[in-house]
Structures are given as structure tokens and as C-alpha cells.
């Protein structure tokens, strides 16, 4: 684990900020000049080097040692750097739940979590739920009850549903609806999602 | 999102020192409001100081009261056995807010520090005195269905959206703070402020200060209810909410605390109503009179006129529900 109170290495603060502003100005001019465009591109590449922060986290049992910009969300890290596309970007503002993942066993919106704030954490995404070729009981139940139509919200629904049962908030259909309200399904598969979760709850399997 | 520097602070001193070094830095805990505001371009700090390494994750209780560390998550508070049994109003209010995922991320300190806001505050193409002082208020004369009816000014009519804070205001909590000048305490009802001429200020914290925890004194209330009315059954901001704590003995109200959400720039305590119901029988007549009194002095802005009628009904219903609880 890195030491606490660390600061990013390399030029930071005002100098870096001014540098970025300059880059933007050059980029604006570049419409008229391919040479400047190339210069701006190089500037951005250098700027990117300045921004990186070291980050070590575990995703679906695999430890990753990475470099990320502080502004990269956990969602973008999973999708764009680790190429785990199962976690979906819906609203990107914590309102739809499509990006739901587990961090140290708790469901969160990965779109509102900065990747650098997950140092040392254990992340589970939809890709990490099945045991080899054996689907997770919640995945089985979603298929059995037709708990989706287009499927875009489904990874988030399933990740959220697993925690809903684990937390002990899946005792009645009303309680499930309340504790699953952070996951929106625009196809309206809600009745089937509730049925799937109820079945897993009643099955009593270890999740 | 505009990039920024990022630094971790694992002690109060490290956090306060880091904040003092960078004027436009901000503390980050759960980030559920701050990251969202940064994505929308509403705020763009030069530096984020991540305080999640600070030792503020404990709930400690004794016979006098309970102290909740600033970094305890909303769901941890709501699920804590002592909160559920001794302060059920707080658990109920927290569970009425946001979603399960957000409650797992959001902290007690962060919930208190979330911005008082409206849709125009979020829309950087529109005037907003809170976001950009002096530009005007687009909500006055605009879309103001969600907006305040108490304590407004001609500069701002936004509401503080927290449910947790409504319960903490009713329970007379105290906010514990640390900062460059040392530690201090602020009464919860004095923590958030009305917009006046400076709507850019949501609260009475001084520059560089940080919430370390919340204290709630033990109380003798035996009846509680948090009623929230919103556009959908779950996961929406309140149109109107009411937190009620009552002590009823022999059919009479011997002590009462009430606060409303969704009606003001801060959690709105109903102190006049509390005085009025003291000693009165816990019945429909008392509740109806209390509800009328609660809505006295309300000012509406067109689309939110309904909040007066809804507010009266909500206060009556919340008192009724609380009084019927065993």
C-alpha cells in the first residue's frame, strides 16, 4: 500500500494548470494550422504524463497496478483501462444504477467514485460474479424470470440485487422495490426483476 | 471533468493544513454530490483532499448521547442497532433519502455538506446567484415547483434536499467541527443558513473548517415519524417532508420536536408549533391546529403554491402517524 498523504509526482498546481490552459489555446488555433495541431497533440501527451497517480486495486480477484488521472471515475477505469465492458454507463450521474459494482462487498455507483479513491479496495463487477461457467444464482434467476428486455440495465440490476439479498432487504416485494429503487429499467422489467430476487431470497443459497 | 490535483489526508491536522495551502481545494468523502457537481462544471476545485483515511468512522454512545463520526456512511448509520432502537427517526429519515448505492457511499459529514441547490444551480447556462453571485435567480418566475416557501430571499429560493438533516434538526443535534483555529461545535439548527443576500453560502462553516462528527443527546421521546412526500415512491427529493418526535403520556403531548424538509434553504424547525402542542391532547384537533400554524408565513412562487396545502396535510399526517406508533 502506498503511504498516506501522498501527492502526485511531477509538476503540479498552478504551473500544470497554466500549461493545460496553454494547450487548450493552442488546440483552438490548430484549426488553421496542422503544425500547431501536432504540437498541441504532443502537449496533451506530455500533460497526460503529469497527471497520473499510482493506483493498486483488486478487480474480480486480479490485482492491478495502474496509473490514472485523478478525474477518472471507477466506471471509466473499469471500462476503458481494464476493458471490463459489463459495467454500463447510463446517466453517469448516480441516478440510474447501470454502473453498480461492489466495493469491498458493498454496492455503489461506480460513476460517482473516483478511481484513485479505491486504493487497496476489492472490486467485483458483473464479469466476476459467475463461478467459471456456472452462473451466479441471481444471474440464473434473471434468465428464468425474464428480468430484462434490452439488457442495458441488467448488469447493474444484478449487482444491486445480490447486495439487496445479502443486506437482508429482500423479504417482501415492497421491500425489494424500495431497496432496488436506485436501479432504473426503462423497458419496465420491474415485476420480473422482483420475482427473480424473491426467488433467490427464498432459495436461501449462499451468495 | 476539469482535472485537479489529488491528495490524501489521514489526520485532522493534515487535512486542515492541506486545505490552507490551496484556496480552491475541497475536501472529498463519499463524493456523491461533489463529483456530480464537478462533472456538470458547477464547481472546479484545483485540488481534492481525500479525507477517507481519517479516523472518523466510529459510532460511540454513552448514557448521555451518541456521537457519529463524520465518515460513517449513511447506510451504516441507518443500520446501526443503537440508531434503530434509540434514534429511529434518524434511521427512518436516512432510508427515505437517495438509493441504497448512494447511501453506501455518502457519509454523515458529506450529507450535511451537500449543496443547497435547484436545477438552475446545476445548469451552468442559466443565471444563478448561488453558483455565480449577482447573475440573478432563474427560479423566481421560472420552474419553481420544487422550491422553498419559507425563509426565501429575492436572491435564492432553493431548498436543502437532505432527509437526514431534517431529522438531525428535529433531534437538536450538534455538529462537531475542526479547523485552522481549533475545534468548535455548532447547533444543528444554526449550521445551515437562509439565503439572504449571500445565497452562495449554504452554512455557517468558516474557511478551511471540516466536520468531524455529529452528536445527538439522549432524549425521552417515545413516538417518532418521518413522512416524505415525493413524485415517485422512492428515490426522489421531497416535495415536502416532516420529522416528528413526540413524548406522549396519559394521552397528552408532554414534549415535541418538529422539522420540515423541502420547504426552505435549510431544515425548517417548527418551534412555534412545538410550543403550541405542549400539554395538549394528542388528537385530531390539536394536529389540525398545529398544521395550520406550521404553514403560517409561507410565501409561494407560482408552481409551488401546492406546498401550503400539502404541507398542512403532511404535518397532520406525520403527527397522526407518530402518535399511533407503539
Shape of chain A: globular
Which regions of chain A have little confidence, pLDDT < 50, spanning 5+ residues? 1-32
> Approximately how much beta-strand content do the residues of chain B carry?
15-25%
Identify low-pLDDT runs of chain B. none
Distance between the termini of chain B: 50 Å
Q: Return the CATH architecture of the domain at 223-324 in chain B.
A: 2-Layer Sandwich
- Major sheet details of chain B: 5 strands, antiparallel
- Per CATH, the architecture of the largest domain in chain A is Roll
Biggest sheet details of chain A: 5 strands, mixed
Sheet/helix structural class of chain A:
alpha+beta
Mean pLDDT value of chain B: 97
Query: For this structure, what is the CATH class of the largest domain in chain A?
Result: Alpha Beta
| Count of discrete alpha- or pi-helical segments spanning 4 or more residues of chain A | 7
Which fold name is given in CATH as the topology of the domain at 223-324 in chain B?
Answer: Enolase-like, domain 1
- Domain unit count of chain A: 3
Radius of gyration of chain A, in Å, reads 21 Å
**How far apart, in Å, are the first and last alpha carbons of chain A?**
29 Å
Q: What is the ordering of alpha helices and beta strands of chain B? A: EHEHEEEHHHHHHHEEHEEEEEHHH
Shape descriptor of chain B reads globular
Helical coverage of chain B, percent range: 25-40%
- Topology-level CATH name of the largest domain in chain A: Ubiquitin-like (UB roll)
Molecular structure report:
The complex is a heterodimer of chains A (207) and B (326). Helix content of chain A is 41%, strand content 12%. Chain A contains seven helices and five strands, in the order ααββαβββαααα. Chain A has helices spanning 14-29, 34-51, 74-81, 137-144, 154-166, 173-179, 190-203; strands spanning 53-59, 62-68, 100-103, 106-109, 122-124. In chain A, a hairpin with a 2-residue loop joins strand 1 (53-59) and strand 2. In chain A, helix 1 (14-29) packs antiparallel against helix 2 and helix 4 crosses helix 7. Chain A starts with 13 loop residues before the first helix and ends with a helix. In chain A, 38% of the residues are buried. Chain B has 13 helices and twelve strands. Chain B has helices at residues 12-21, 34-39, 74-79, 81-86, 88-95, 100-105, 108-113, 119-122, 164-170, 188-191, 271-277, 284-294, 306-324, and strands spanning 5-8, 26-28, 47-50, 59-62, 65-69, 174-179, 182-187, 210-217, 223-229, 240-249, 252-261, 268-269. Chain B has a five-stranded antiparallel beta sheet with strand order 4-5-8-6-7. A four-stranded antiparallel beta sheet of chain B has the order 9-10-11-12. In chain B, strands 1-3-2 form a three-stranded parallel beta sheet, covered by helices on one side. In chain B, a hairpin with a 2-residue loop joins strand 10 and strand 11. Chain A binds chain B through residues 4-8, 12-13, 16-17, 20, 51, 53, 69-71, 73, 92-94, 97, 100, 106-109, 112-114, 116-117, 160, 163-164, 167, 169, 177-183, and chain B through 1-10, 14, 22, 28, 31-32, 35-36, 38-40, 46, 48, 50, 52-53, 75, 98-102, 104-105, 233-235.
Amino acid at each position: 500500500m502506498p503511504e498516506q498523504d501522498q501527492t502526485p509526482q511531477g509538476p503540479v498546481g498552478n504551473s500544470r494548470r497554466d500549461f493545460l490552459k496553454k494547450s487548450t489555446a493552442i488546440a483552438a488555433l490548430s484549426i488553421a494550422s496542422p503544425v500547431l495541431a501536432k504540437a498541441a497533440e504532443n502537449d496533451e501527451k506530455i500533460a497526460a504524463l503529469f497527471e497520473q497517480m499510482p493506483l493498486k486495486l483488486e478487480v474480480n480477484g486480479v490485482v492491478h497496478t495502474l496509473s490514472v488521472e485523478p478525474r477518472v471515475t471507477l466506471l471509466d477505469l473499469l471500462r476503458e483501462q481494464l476493458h471490463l465492458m459489463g459495467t454500463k454507463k447510463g446517466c453517469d450521474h448516480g441516478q440510474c444504477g447501470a454502473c453498480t459494482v461492489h466495493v469491498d462487498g458493498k454496492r455503489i455507483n461506480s460513476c460517482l467514485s473516483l478511481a484513485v479513491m479505491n486504493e487497496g479496495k476489492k472490486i467485483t463487477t458483473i464479469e466476476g460474479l459467475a463461478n467459471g461457467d456456472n452462473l451466479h444464482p441471481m444471474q440464473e434467476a434473471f434468465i428464468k424470470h425474464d428480468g430484462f428486455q434490452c439488457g442495458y440495465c441488467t448488469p447493474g440490476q444484478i449487482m444491486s440485487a445480490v447486495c439487496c439479498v445479502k443486506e437482508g432487504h429482500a423479504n417482501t416485494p415492497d421491500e425489494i422495490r424500495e431497496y432496488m429503487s436506485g436501479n432504473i429499467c426503462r423497458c419496465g422489467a420491474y415485476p420480473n426483476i422482483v420475482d427473480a430476487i424473491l426467488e433467490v431470497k427464498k432459495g436461501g443459497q449462499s451468495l | 471533468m476539469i482535472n485537479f490535483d489529488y491528495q490524501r489526508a489521514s489526520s485532522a491536522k493534515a487535512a486542515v493544513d492541506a486545505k490552507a495551502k490551496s484556496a480552491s481545494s475541497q475536501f472529498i468523502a463519499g463524493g456523491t454530490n461533489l463529483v456530480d457537481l464537478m462533472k456538470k462544471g458547477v464547481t472546479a476545485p484545483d485540488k481534492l483532499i481525500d479525507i477517507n483515511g481519517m479516523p472518523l468512522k466510529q459510532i460511540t454512545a454513552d448514557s448521555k448521547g451518541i456521537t457519529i463520526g463524520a465518515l460513517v456512511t449513511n447506510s451504516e448509520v441507518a443500520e446501526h442497532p443503537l440508531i434503530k432502537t434509540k434514534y429511529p427517526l434518524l434511521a427512518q429519515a436516512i432510508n427515505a433519502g437517495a438509493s441504497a448505492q448512494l447511501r453506501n457511499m455518502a457519509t454523515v459529514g458529506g450529507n450535511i455538506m451537500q449543496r443547497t441547490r435547484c436545477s438552475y444551480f446545476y445548469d451552468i447556462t442559466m443565471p444563478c446567484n448561488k453558483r455565480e453571485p449577482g447573475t440573478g435567480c432563474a427560479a423566481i418566475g421560472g420552474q419553481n415547483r420544487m422550491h422553498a416557501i419559507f425563509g426565501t430571499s429575492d436572491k435564492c429560493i432553493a431548498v436543502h434536499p437532505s432527509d437526514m438533516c431534517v431529522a438531525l434538526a428535529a433531534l437538536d443535534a450538534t455538529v462537531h467541527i475542526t479547523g485552522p483555529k481549533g475545534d468548535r461545535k455548532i447547533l444543528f439548527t444554526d449550521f445551515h443558513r437562509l439565503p439572504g443576500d449571500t445565497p452562495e453560502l449554504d452554512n455557517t462553516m468558516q474557511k478551511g473548517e471540516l466536520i468531524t462528527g455529529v452528536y445527538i443527546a439522549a432524549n425521552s421521546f417515545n413516538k417518532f415519524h418521518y413522512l416524505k412526500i415525493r413524485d415517485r415512491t422512492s428515490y426522489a427529493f421531497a416535495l415536502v417532508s416532516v420529522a416528528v418526535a413526540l413524548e406522549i403520556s396519559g394521552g397528552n403531548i408532554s414534549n415535541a420536536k418538529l422539522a420540515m424538509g423541502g420547504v426552505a434553504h435549510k431544515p425548517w424547525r417548527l418551534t412555534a408549533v412545538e410550543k403550541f402542542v405542549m400539554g395538549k391532547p394528542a388528537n385530531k384537533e390539536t394536529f389540525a391546529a398545529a398544521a395550520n400554524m406550521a404553514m403560517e408565513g409561507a410565501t409561494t412562487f407560482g408552481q409551488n403554491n401546492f406546498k401550503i396545502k400539502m404541507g398542512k396535510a403532511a404535518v397532520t399526517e406525520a403527527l397522526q402517524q407518530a402518535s399511533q406508533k407503539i
